[in-house]
Fold these 2 entries.
Entry 1:
Amino acid sequence: MIIYGFKGAHLRTAPLPAGSSCPACATPDALKASVYSRYAHVYWIPFFPFSKSAVALCEHCQQGWEEKTLPAELHPAVRTLKKSTRFPLWNWAGVGVLVLGLAGASIAGRYHERDRLAYLAAPHAGDIYTIHSMGDSTKYSLLKVMSAKGNTVEVAANEYEIDDRSPINELNAPEKYSKETESLTVLDLQIMHNKGQLTDVDRLEE
């Protein structure tokens, strides 16, 4: 269940310009205006602000006005204060977290791709290859490297397939692999990778 919604936050309170008089009691220099933000949140984390509002208050007679009921003579000063008030950075916290998460995932993906290519170029016994059935199939399975000597790699095929792009957690058990092995070359593995048939490599002992 995703919890989301909208909240408000006080941004700033400041006196209106000198000489401003209260429309209700005519007291000079007693007016202050407060600016508030409205922001969207997900799990109570501010995601992004989308509006600002303002209210005015006379500190002498305590008469207050919301923005939509402001007397005409207060509009310019309140509008100026509202315009000069910026959204605080924490109102964008969710966007910042999202950007950092995407950047982290991108960097991690690049390192993983680098490792995957290195593992394919120099196979080790125990390496696990994730294999995707060709065509429109959504099935994935595993190949396990039993031995690697020179350019030849002996692999055992997993006897099961599942609808999971990361089947290693469910399928990587000794009893699920065939007792017979198949000989492949490093070039065969690279071709399978280029075709999208070999989608991942895990070196579990590292």
Note: The helical segments are 75-84, 93-121, 168-171, 186-194.
Entry 2:
Amino acid sequence: MKVVHLKYPHQLNQSHEFSTAYSLAVGFFDGVHKGHQAVIQNAKEMAEQLNIESAVMTFDPHPSIVLGGRREKVFYITPLQQKLDVLKDYGVENVFVVQFTSDFAKLSPEDFIQYFIKDLNVKHVTAGFDFSFGQFGKGSMETMKELSNGEYGVTIIDKQSDQEEKISSTRIRNYLQDGEMDSAAKLLGRAFEVPGIVVHGDKRGRTIGFPTANIQSMEGSFIPATGVYAVKILVQNKWYDGVCNVGYKPTFKNPEDKQLSIEVHILDFDKNIYGEEVKVGWYKRIRSEKKFDGIESLKAQIEKDKNEAIEYFASYSL
């Protein structure tokens, strides 16, 4: 998959000539959830139909970071590198990452189309019904059609809903904050994942019979609500079942110590994996974090958590 970074005014790799024609899916695509997948799938189908290459255009950072106007802190379901990894898995051939700046935000809809559609040799544009562009979001997908002058085709994807309401990144964020991993996974079409690296911890788990991998998450990743989870972990290109504790280890730590830890007890695993890059897939929140009155009660609870995770994965289906 080819990734091209664009900035307005254009600062392009001079060796990159836009002689290739593209069928483009455009949007922010945080999470690359089922709604986004419908947009991307259409762009891929149009690419095949027109015998041109598929492409996705996304933006970085989130517009609200540049424009302000949101009180709550924005977190990404898929930080940029993770988003690119997911797009590659979906078979996208090209990704344009447009740097969202104050200058870019001031572009008129007409200029956006000229610089980021026509000048890139885009022959078909696909986006969701609510995609807007240009200064103050004045441009809509109807504008995209009106200004095409026959130079590119346009497909507008209708609202994608489940039984409840529109599939959206906001809903997924709310589920993640509440630890509702199965609900998030249904909208994502896959388990929520956090990439990271295995680092040295306090090694207390091995002394009580439950060794854990201490995970330092990739910068910008969102960590779900504290508690104990049934997870899968990707280590050296193989997925293993596990039990993950996210929290502040109240049984051992001073309650004033607010350093969050992510520890995974990997089932049927005994390798030394310090320094390995891993991914943690979050499937089910088993319970909230709590303080135990001693080691034995903690060990008994971990055994219960482990068995619950084993039972969960034995019957799991998305």
Note: The two ends are 28 Å apart (CA to CA).
